[in-house]
Specification:
By secondary structure, the chain is mainly β. The chain has 4 helices and 30 strands. Strands 3, 4, 28, 29 and 30 form a 5-stranded antiparallel β-sheet that branches. A hairpin with a 4-residue loop joins strand 7 and strand 8. The radius of gyration is 29 Å and the shape is globular. The relative contact order is 0.10.
Length: 444
Amino acid sequence: MYWDEQRQRYFPASSRPLGAPVSATTQPLRPVADAASRSTSRRSRNRRNGIYGGETAYPPESEGQRGAVSHWKTVHAVNDGLLYGQRRRTMHDLQVVQLSRNSVEHVPYDTGVGLPRTHDFPFDLGSTISTMCTMGDTGEDGMRLWLGDATGWLYKVDAVDPFCERHYYLGTPITSIMRSGQITLVTSLGSPARMLVNRAQSAGLWLLREFPPNVCNDVRCGQVCGRAAAVGGRQGPMYFFDAEQDQFVRWKGKSDTFSLCFQDQNLLYIGMRSGKVGRWDLRQPNTHPDTVINMSEKDIQIGGAPVQHLRLIHQYGMLVETMRGDLEVHDLRFLQGATPMLQFQGHVSSYEQKPGLTIDPSEDFLFAGGGDCRLRVWSLRTGRRVASDVEGPSAASSTSPFHKIYPSPICAMEILKDEQQTYLVMGSGTYLRRIGLGPLGLLR
């Protein structure tokens, strides 16, 4: 190194100009610690970071403090985590614990005169609930629902102080209610099958479209993406370029359509009675859909596998649920036949009623009703079931929503949020039930 007097700094000796004086001054060096101090410093740093066996001292646990100390350890691990992935996994584990411990069903309370409130949860609608959908994402609409029943009535329901009003009658069981942006789509089974469309700016006006039986019948599902819409019925789906216009394209196949899912406005996935999942490229609507998943190819000999639910999660994951009880996620980028990327154990489906299924807005948890009248929850990050192995009062109490057997199967559910709490609202038989899942920030 040589010292440049003009620029007052050191430079490598190789860059010294010709004729420049060579300075004897050397670069100051840091004092070198001895081996014992280096070893002690390394051990202290590793102990703080919780690696190489280092442990942090925690308060002594008593019988009544084990849960609190466990949460304290989890929070400490989040604060001291070295990597983003580690912190994210730990936060998810904390969410699982809080969800399993804090979830509780809303029950009627005494008004002071020995009688429960007239309008409270569980709320008896008087007819079997078949499907539901939120009216909006935020504000008052975020706590309001469109609700359909098995007789064909469409209801408008307030989920804060339960009150409902009949809004429209379609004559046959309502099979789906879907919303995307400003468009809400309602379908009925038939015959004749009907399709009801509403745009948020239309001041409550609905567009009713009735399908002749030879065009479309037995409509079991509907889906909307932007202004485009699709309905699935006997021997294939119909695609409408604009939900408020009559122009449509129909693909007529050999199997009935049980579920639909848009990946974007160009790709529509079709769940069929045969157990196949087809991908229809809407840029070439006259082409035949490709089969991307075939659930009937699994080595399971019990029952058929009609695909009742299709949901897109984490941008490239396709959630598939069948009548046989399959509940799994397939990666659309690296498909491996009928082999899933993630499988959720313990789900019980039904050949009589379509179970309710929903996903939280952050796509971390999957809620599903079972044919055995139970509510189950799984982590979409790990595939593990929530609250299945939780011990203590929550598991032993019959009031825990994850260990309770309801009088009727759960056929519809949605997640709602107000200013303080997050709720799961579900339809079981004729009753609308509300479960508190925890504070607002629990499910981001």
